[in-house]
Amino acid sequence: MNVLAIGAHPDDIEVYCAGTLLKYKQQGHNIFIALTTSGNIGSNEYENREAIAAQREQEQLEAAKVLGAEVRFLRFDDQGLQDTPETRRAVINAIRWANPDVILAHYPEDPSTDHAVTGRIVSEVMLSIPGKLIPADEPPISKNPSLFYYTSAAGVGFLPDVYVDTTDVFPLKKEALAKHTSQFNWMDVYQSHNLLNIMEINDKFRGLQAGCEYAEGFRAFRIHGYMPNFKLLP
Amino acid sequence: MNVLAIGAHPDDIEVYCAGTLLKYKQQGHNIFIALTTSGNIGSNEYENREAIAAQREQEQLEAAKVLGAEVRFLRFDDQGLQDTPETRRAVINAIRWANPDVILAHYPEDPSTDHAVTGRIVSEVMLSIPGKLIPADEPPISKNPSLFYYTSAAGVGFLPDVYVDTTDVFPLKKEALAKHTSQFNWMDVYQSHNLLNIMEINDKFRGLQAGCEYAEGFRAFRIHGYMPNFKLLP
Amino acid sequence: MNVLAIGAHPDDIEVYCAGTLLKYKQQGHNIFIALTTSGNIGSNEYENREAIAAQREQEQLEAAKVLGAEVRFLRFDDQGLQDTPETRRAVINAIRWANPDVILAHYPEDPSTDHAVTGRIVSEVMLSIPGKLIPADEPPISKNPSLFYYTSAAGVGFLPDVYVDTTDVFPLKKEALAKHTSQFNWMDVYQSHNLLNIMEINDKFRGLQAGCEYAEGFRAFRIHGYMPNFKLLP
Amino acid sequence: MNVLAIGAHPDDIEVYCAGTLLKYKQQGHNIFIALTTSGNIGSNEYENREAIAAQREQEQLEAAKVLGAEVRFLRFDDQGLQDTPETRRAVINAIRWANPDVILAHYPEDPSTDHAVTGRIVSEVMLSIPGKLIPADEPPISKNPSLFYYTSAAGVGFLPDVYVDTTDVFPLKKEALAKHTSQFNWMDVYQSHNLLNIMEINDKFRGLQAGCEYAEGFRAFRIHGYMPNFKLLP
Amino acid sequence: MNVLAIGAHPDDIEVYCAGTLLKYKQQGHNIFIALTTSGNIGSNEYENREAIAAQREQEQLEAAKVLGAEVRFLRFDDQGLQDTPETRRAVINAIRWANPDVILAHYPEDPSTDHAVTGRIVSEVMLSIPGKLIPADEPPISKNPSLFYYTSAAGVGFLPDVYVDTTDVFPLKKEALAKHTSQFNWMDVYQSHNLLNIMEINDKFRGLQAGCEYAEGFRAFRIHGYMPNFKLLP
Amino acid sequence: MNVLAIGAHPDDIEVYCAGTLLKYKQQGHNIFIALTTSGNIGSNEYENREAIAAQREQEQLEAAKVLGAEVRFLRFDDQGLQDTPETRRAVINAIRWANPDVILAHYPEDPSTDHAVTGRIVSEVMLSIPGKLIPADEPPISKNPSLFYYTSAAGVGFLPDVYVDTTDVFPLKKEALAKHTSQFNWMDVYQSHNLLNIMEINDKFRGLQAGCEYAEGFRAFRIHGYMPNFKLLP
């Protein structure tokens, strides 16, 4: 089975759904990651966008190595991602590239705008996956993937439909997240916790709700023709 | 695995979730049915409550034979079922009797009052299943069943979380429902369709949404300690 | 056509839906009012419950005269009304007595408890209207009335589905409400406005939303067999 | 009275609201249809967009003949329709062209993206109908139409506010839909049912809820100045 | 100022809102606690209800000492608490006894039934606080307290309106909770975490959302006459 | 403290939140206003957009004088405002210019499109306030403002979280609104009330709910890093 996780910035996958990806990997599935931006703007540590993007993509590739995942960078600007023909086309390409049975994406109601826009685009292009005349660079695919939304930033406004117990892969998830070294300094302005703490506190809370030590929570997207199959979750 | 379906009236199980029960049966699981009332009041065809109850229980037993299910009648009055210590106790007894891994029950927001009250009581007694001092006649059990709500009457106000494809067992479901012969005459006052039609139209509509011919839709109950396990659905 | 308005206390009908009743009256329909309580407890102006009830029922009868309505008092205690076999039976009786095509009742999510309980009971007994074995003192009726909920107290948490323009009957509504003279003194504890102001401000606000001077807002109850017919609204 | 139905693709009107249009027609009203796209992309049966559009517009015109409706094609690309100054302008033009008392449009929460975007644009331009300086090619109109949303694709996530009984015009609706012959082959990828079945199952289900054989369900749009008038529904 | 926290079982206050109570205490306010049950049934560690209640009340009194609070035990049976004239009366008594400016109570949508029923009763009796004829044993009071709901069990289905930073009192909260020694053994059936962990994980998660180390989240109850004053929160 | 109110058109601030601004001013805070459009299109009184904008900006400056506020005009076209890189940049500039502790903005679910889009952009750029690489012309700021949404047009679909008593500043609010003289003639098409009445009826209704004569209601925006501080409300 192919599993595709789509995030807005390098580190989103590792913070929000890498535990589930690691479970899939354990079960022998193929893991793909696509990022709509390389987080080139929303950071104050570097002098220019190119430097940031280069650094963060490098970190993402190292994190992906821990997860055993392939990565595709869509490279739009962050902190202002919008739903346009270009961003839709790039997301369609990414989905066709991964040929997924399951897609994990940001929650469209995430109050963090790049997250929400990414989640919305993914939801909107579901019906465009099989069409041969759709503006895209990758050929159509014929699968009907299930789409699950992972948690919003800090879990604000997010009530999971379903949980995945990630206790046994939690150390590896932490290791993957730790690769995003550039994200552990600059968050002094509106972040009160560092990334590892944010991730650990969130996963413990979802674990508490689910009856295990660590868990990740998901909501399902429901659309005619692509009804979510909960049994595909690990 | 043990599966318990709890309904308010004879015929509710056959109308709303018998397809899923039949799928469970196919897989070798044990099926139990509990009914909070015997529908002794809300019918205009018979002269007294005892006659109705006797007739409808008989029909229910015949329907259960088709499903391969054991039945427990709680025998409260219908069209006015309430959440009281007595009804809670009877529902706790029924759950402990079936020792279920999965419970299927009415949706607590069903606009039909007996349905809603039955669904609410089931939800409320979940934490009482293991307690040895709980007022009950059956001994405590130690399972943490998943609770799924089946559709409201005519699907009003009901948006499923998840679907079960019941296409292959649909003829058998129909056969089970047809045993409730007393329910095919009197519904002239506020029913515009007979029971078989109601059931078939609903299951076709859920099938349409789910991408198959016939389906049953469910919503999950989420509570600390008894988080729903979607993989237990057939 | 027969129209029944069900309220929790004397004055509720006049505050919340008397404009709509007056419109119905204008059109030649028959108006009925039923009150679950006589407001015998939730008032600090009188020394005992009987004195309050007598006074308030008298005021209600005078208000009903302005509306051209018949009144039925169910006489349960207020500030603690509950959903019991007795209150359900009394509400069933009231509905059968009025034989209504349209029912107006409190919104079941009204934060004011007697209002909510009254609204919930009305919703719950809808399916009991035609049953001959239902515990009741009035004979079954065969109509399928539409049920509309009028606004919650001070409109808190209430978003109307539909509006009725009551501009031309507003002076008469005011006259009817003014009959509840006992309710114009004691409300110093938690009321900042007197009853006439509460009513006028609310109706002006709904008028503003609806595009007229004064209006009353309603939400519809949806249940299989009794789907609301919006065309029955005046 | 003038009635305007706005859809995203040829066949949407016939699938979702043609029964209501036929009822209006029966009553002597004028029917107008506007389509934001000609479905030129989201189809795999043809080799190029122009061929598809030509074929589908032709089918739409034949279907419209059955409905007795005039059609306006806005001709944006489907499977990627967006809310832009151009699409807004075209929708404003369409509304002014039809000079409608009632507008029927897609539900803005429809999970199908072209549907949702079409529904959102219609909602957004309501206040632009009368303005003479609004960027548009048709002159301002002075009506305040009521806007009702018809069902989402396969009814997913859709709970109707109100129903229209379409039983007597159902055969004609079927005839109109059957004109979209190109849509009866290719839907093998994510459609499990053909268009006629989708439509019939949906209308039977709404009929079941409404107490008739076939019905169409609607939700109302509420905005200051254009409050929905439910009595304008047939 | 007087602050009253109402819970369903001994330990609920310490798990869910003791941090906020400690902040109030720091500011010089008077703290009151009322418990609808003494948790005499929902525990498997003891042989009889009296023994459990005695033990748990003792623990509650010790916890209250840490909080500097007075305690009132209402002593209904747990795992089946219901909304009755008796439970309403007892809750009215408790509120009048504490004469509070702020009330903290369980969330009425908490999936844990005793919690929900307690929260519902508190909400329902708000308008009964000032009435001299209300069935009660304590004299009426004239304050209009603000009511805030603390988190549901394990935060399931709970989205806070507002947060209180409890970082500096967290060690004391932990000390208070630790007094409930009887609750640290028996929870093996459906609890995966012990009480201290449940509490700490929850408060860290709310702290993460609020931008501090530990926090408690609340939702406000809105009713005419008792609109919540957020400035009364510490 | 700095307070920034962001609106879509000249007069929005005065209609919806000027009372709260006046309370802030009373307390010695600095008031800033930013308008995404100058209402140059959605008016039928003038012959061209420039004339309208000039007139309305002049009125806005006079209204701002009454409020003691500085004004920044972003000057996009109204009746079609969209979320684009340009509008986001202008809103970021406005926020950085005001360096606010509190932001008041339109509700993103306001059915009036320019209002909704303005409210959505403000919400989306919150995380862009501190970033030095964000496309903007004003330097980054380091505050974490609380964002509150004021009421939708005519209060449609709006349920306040919290209220501000504006009784004592109401006459001044009225005086400020009256400066928008151009808006008191042309609204004949879809407005049934003039602006002063709209405002007064709305504020009386919110006062009724809040227990005072006049009030303004707000909803809070919740996002990680910028959790609303209700104590900053006047």
Describe this structure in words.
6 copies of one chain form a homohexamer. The first copy, chain A, is α/β, with parallel strands linked by helices and 234 residues long. The first copy, chain A, has a single domain (2-232), classed as Rossmann fold. The first copy, chain A, has 7 helices and 7 strands; from the N terminus they run E-H-H-E-H-E-H-E-H-E-E-H-H-E. Chain A has helices at residues 12-16, 18-26, 49-67, 85-98, 113-125, 170-177, 195-210; strands at 2-7, 30-37, 69-76, 102-105, 146-150, 162-165, 215-220. Chain A has a 7-stranded mixed β-sheet with strand order 3-2-1-4-5-7-6, with helices on both faces. In chain A, strand 4 (102-105), helix 5 and strand 5 (146-150) form a beta-alpha-beta unit. The radius of gyration of chain A is 16 Å and the shape is globular. The N and C termini of chain A lie close together (11 Å).
Can you lay out the helices and strands and say which pair or pack?
The structure is a homohexamer of 234-residue chains.
Chain A: E1 2-7, H1 12-16, H2 18-26, E2 30-37, H3 49-67, E3 69-76, H4 85-98, E4 102-105, H5 113-125, E5 146-150, E6 162-165, H6 170-177, H7 195-210, E7 215-220
Helix pairs in contact in A: 3-6, 4-5
SSE arrangement of chain A, N to C: EHHEHEHEHEEHHE
Uncertain stretches of chain A: none
Most extensive interface? A-D, 24 and 24 residues
- C-alpha end-to-end distance of chain A: 11 Å
Task: Report the CATH architecture of chain A.
Answer: 3-Layer(aba) Sandwich
Give the class-level CATH name of chain A: Alpha Beta
Work out the number of β strands of chain A.
Answer: 7
Q: Provide the spatial order of strands within the biggest beta sheet of chain A.
A: 3-2-1-4-5-7-6
User: What class would the helix/strand composition of chain A place it in?
Assistant: alpha/beta
Helical percent range of chain A?
25-40%
Give Rg of chain A in angstroms.
16 Å
Oligomer: homohexamer
Tally of alpha and pi helices of chain A = 7
Instruction: Give the rounded overall mean pLDDT of chain A.
Output: 94
